[in-house]
Amino acid sequence: MRCRDIEVLWDETRGDCARALKEQVTIHLHACPHCQVLYEECEGVAYCLSCLPVPEPSLDLARRILDHIGSMRIRLRTEPLILASARAPFGRLYVGFKGQRIAYIGIDTGTSFEEVRTRVEQRLRRPVVRGEAPPWLQGTLDRFFETWHVDDRVVDISDLTEFEQAALRAAATIPRGEVRSYGWVATQIGRPKAARAVGRVMARNPLPLFFPCHRVVDSSGGLHDYFYGLEMKERLLRMEGYRRAR
């Protein structure tokens, strides 16, 4: 079980979650310092997990382990991501692509290339090399900022978990110029108790324009947070025609 899987399950362990699954969460937390830090930040989770009864042995534990090993083998592929600079109406972008599909977009905030490369490698678990933006890539971006739509065939989110992919695809259904809550996204993907986990997915979104996490807000309608700052989130929404109700 991976750290990202644990984050998704934290909220669900409070409700009707299989006992065997709760045991796996507990075992992972005891062994993972990274998750222990996040664990302490989640209100009530420590108490809930400490009170869980001892579960019966999971009959499908071996299958889960094999599935996890298989997924890790896939994610540790060595095909590099090519990271190039491209232009946008509001400045420069870092764009990562494999073949003719885009797997990463980052707004250039003045951070060095090496820092961006490290962040992308950690997020996608794939080596990153510097390259030049081919004509098709800049053309794709230009068309996107004219229509705020991108062809799915040029987008690659295969390095993400199924939960992450589902949450991002749900965000992509939010109409241009409108916003929805984290809870709305969680409900759309059949995980209504996972609003907090949806928030973490949006915060780590590797394609924040194509999968518009800037259209996802808190339950009160507040912009809440954005990796590139609330000013940029508000600017993107204004570009799409969004006007917040007074």
Task: Describe the model.
The chain is α/β, with parallel strands linked by helices and 246 residues long. It has three domains: 3-75, no CATH class; 81-154, Double Stranded RNA Binding Domain, CATH 3.30.160; 162-240, Arc Repressor Mutant, subunit A (Orthogonal Bundle). It is built from eleven helices and six strands. It has helices spanning 3-9, 19-31, 33-41, 45-50, 61-75, 113-124, 135-147, 162-171, 182-188, 195-203, 230-240, and strands at residues 81-88, 91-98, 101-107, 128-130, 180-181, 216-217. The strands form two sheets. A four-stranded mixed sheet has the order 3-2-1-4, with helices on both faces. Helix 2 (19-31) packs across helix 3 (33-41) and helix 9 packs across helix 10. The longest helix is centred in the first third of the chain and has 15 residues, at 61-75. The protein is globular and about 55 Å long. The mean pLDDT is 83.
Q: If you average the pLDDT, what whole number results? A: 83
CATH superfamily of the largest domain: Winged helix-like DNA-binding domain superfamily/Winged helix DNA-binding domain
Write down the CATH topology of the largest domain: Arc Repressor Mutant, subunit A
Counted up, domains total 3
Main beta sheet: strand number and arrangement? 4 strands, mixed
Structural class: alpha/beta
Tally of extended strands? 6
Low-confidence stretches: none
